[in-house]
Design brief:
The chain is 47% helix and 12% strand. The longest helix is centred in the C-terminal third of the chain and has 21 residues. It contains seven helices and four strands; from the N terminus they run E-E-H-H-H-H-E-E-H-H-H. The strands form two sheets. A two-stranded antiparallel ribbon has the order 1-2.
Length: 171
């Protein structure tokens, strides 16, 4: 997946560590992913809910661990997991306008197990690889923070009657 240009990154889920980004999913990752699914969410086409997955206990964790391991090795996503139900919900305002509607997608809860594992691994890698100044698409940070900072800097330059082109040199 990633070229190994430095020493391997360590990542941990539920106190179990691994250093290889290509390592197949650990059972503890599957267990973590199942337990972190949100209750009360609508199921996808397969009608499997998060509550059903959690209630399956150790047998369910073992079953989905085998599925996730197979997907990881074959790089083939099950067809059922690729299907989604799209629902259009109205927002406030004139419902004749398309802009006053939003779409939600109901995907298979079992597919969310694998998606959570992939997402967690990528988050852990990106936290060490991406610059600390990068804000977009990072947990607890946002581009709005950068925009706010830039506006403050511009205002300070204007307060001291400094020309904005000098501000450009900072970046």
């Amino acid at each position: 997946m990633f070229a190994n240009t430095s020493e391997p990154k360590q990542t941990a889920v539920d106190n179990e560590s691994y250093t290889d980004t290509e390592l197949e999913p650990l059972r503890s990752e599957d267990e973590w992913a199942i337990n972190s699914l949100k209750d009360g969410k609508s199921p996808g086409c397969d009608e499997i809910t998060a509550e059903m997955l959690k209630a399956s206990g150790e047998a369910g964790i073992t079953y989905y661990h085998k599925i996730c391991t197979k997907i990881w090795k074959t790089v083939e996503w099950p067809v059922e997991w690729k299907r989604a139900v799209f629902i259009i919900l109205p927002n406030k305002g004139d419902l004749q306008l398309c802009s006053n509607h939003r779409t939600i997608s109901l995907i298979s809860h079992p597919s969310k197990i694998m998606l959570k594992i992939i997402m967690k691994r990528l988050e852990n890698i990106l936290e060490t690889e991406v610059s600390k100044t990068q804000a977009g698409f990072r947990k607890g940070r946002g581009t709005r923070d950068h925009i706010f900072n830039l506006r403050n800097i511009i205002e300070k330059f204007r307060e001291i009657d400094e020309e904005i082109h000098r501000f450009h040199r900072l970046f």
